[in-house]
Amino acid sequence: MSLLVIKFGGTSVADIERIKQAAGKVAAEAKRGHKLVVVVSAMSGETDRLISLCRSVTPLYDLREYDAVVATGEQITSGLMAIALQQRGLRARSWQGWQIPMVSDTAHSKARLLRIEADKLRARLEDGEVAVLAGFQGVTEDGRISTLGRGGSDTSAVALAAALNADRCDIYTDVDGVYTTDPRLVSQARKLSRITYEEMLEMASMGAKVLQTRSVEMAMKHKIKVQVLSTFENGIGSDYPGTLLTDEVNMEENLVTGITYARDEAKISVIGLKDTPGVEADLFGPLSDANINVDMIVMNVADPAGLADITFTVPRGDVSRVIETLKTHKDKLGYQNVLTDTEVAKVSVIGVGMRSHAGVATTMFRTLAARGINIQAISTSEIKISVLIAQEYAELAVRALHAAYGMEKG
Ligand code: ASP
Ligand code: MG
Questions:
Q1: Cα–Cα distance between 227 and 166 in angstroms, integer?
Q2: What is the CA(154)–ligand 2 centre distance, in A?
Q3: How many CA atoms lie within 13 A of 29 on its CB side?
């Protein structure tokens, strides 16, 4: 007999019909004899609605009270799900975060879980009860309700799986798994049967918004088997229809596991800097003081006069703050000119196979060159290569690379 944590996202519990359908998946797992913890999100749109209620009182609302308001979305679904499970003849009981308790720090609206005191819950599970937990919720040491940030129910589910030493955590959502690339862009995109935590983290931080990043970090740390699967298809988690996150590398898989693209960065070029020791610190120090996240960095020193150009990327929304900051420090930096370009896209290839195989970058460069696509900046990590290109070529680049690495459907 296994212990499973089963999480349903907002679209999976969007209305009563869907809650009933989700309850059907839980009942099918119960029939196979598993002990079950169900974690639910708020019905889709509900958290947004609750946030806008807070805002309409005042945009400067108190975050403790924001948490008191937005946590109610999950409270409703936990009760409704328990009723739907009882309808199917299961013994089910709802739990709020404070009832477990899921103890968090006091960073209201984006709290981090500190510990889960799961003894009561464990006893009920042993007794054959299905526990239905309101996701997203925590409680501070001094007893106030907290929430774990947008998408936080994923983290609730993985944290519970870790605390209970569960055999698996199934995350039901509106996609049927993690794909090699965006299927809306590349019809040949293939669903991955498995992906490593590290690869998923790289995919998630670049726009493949399937799971909250924190939940993947937590799964990696505690080695929790997490499966992403669709609520809207037949089949249940125990038949493994989705994508499994593990730390086992599948040797059969391709060198490159995923290709992502992001259009939310802008390129800034600072032209004609003095090429002296410390100029980089003088440039990037004030940006980090202003809390601006710099991603790719390229530096050229070609000028015989000893001048340097530095190109870097920042989130598009930060461009005006970057320009302001550079202006403030112009005297010290002594640059000649600043150019900005928001018509760029970052395309990345990701795969743990890169660690042990050469040539992945060369294939990328050759493929883009063959399409006449110019690379404006490059950055790499152990398992990722990213290039910055003109935005108009993003789709072409993703398609060409997907084919070049042989990632199409078999
Ligand atoms: N309901 C919360 C949100 O929309 C938490 C979640 O769904 O994971 O962010
Ligand atoms: Mg979500």
A1: 13
A2: 7
A3: 27
Digit-coded pLDDT (tens) for 93-135: 999 999 999 999 999 999 999 999 999 999 999 999 999 999 9
Q: For the segment 340-353, what is each residue's pLDDT rounded down to a tens digit? A: 999 999 999 999 98
Helices marked H in 297-385: 319-328, 330-333, 360-370
Tokens of 170: 């199934």
162 touches 118 (CB < 8 A):
no
Residues framing ligand 1 (Cβ under 6 A)? 9-10, 41-42, 47, 73, 135-136, 150-154
Task: Report the separation in Å between the CA atom of 212 and the middle of ligand 1, taken as the mean of its atom positions.
Answer: 10
For residue 196, the tally of other CB atoms under 10 A from its CB is 21
User: Which domains, from first to last, does the chain contain?
Assistant: 3-246 (3.40.1160.10), 254-410 (3.30.2130.10)
Question: In this structure, which residue's CA is closest to atom 8 in ligand 1?
Answer: 151
pLDDT at 313 over 60: yes
Is the distance from CB of 67 to CB of 146 less than 8 angstroms? yes
Helix, strand or coil for residue 160? helix
CA dihedral 64, 66, 67, 73 (to 10 degrees): 160
Q: Which value, in Å, is the radius of gyration of the alpha carbons in the chain?
A: 24
Residue whose C-alpha is closest to residue 211's, from 149, 273, 164: 149
Which ligand lies nearest the alpha carbon of 135?
A: 1
Instruction: Spell out which residues have Cβ within 5 A of ligand 2, the ion.
Output: 9, 151
The tokens describing 151, both together, are: 């998408």
Angstrom CA distances, 223 to 2, 158, 192, stand at 16, 10, 19
Ligand 1, atom 9: closest residue by C-alpha = 150
Residue predicted with more confidence, 73 or 358: 73
For residue 77, how far is its CA from the centre of ligand 2 (angstroms)?
15
Chain length of the chain: 410
The per-residue pLDDT for range 366-395, each reduced to its tens digit, is 999 999 999 999 999 999 999 999 999 999
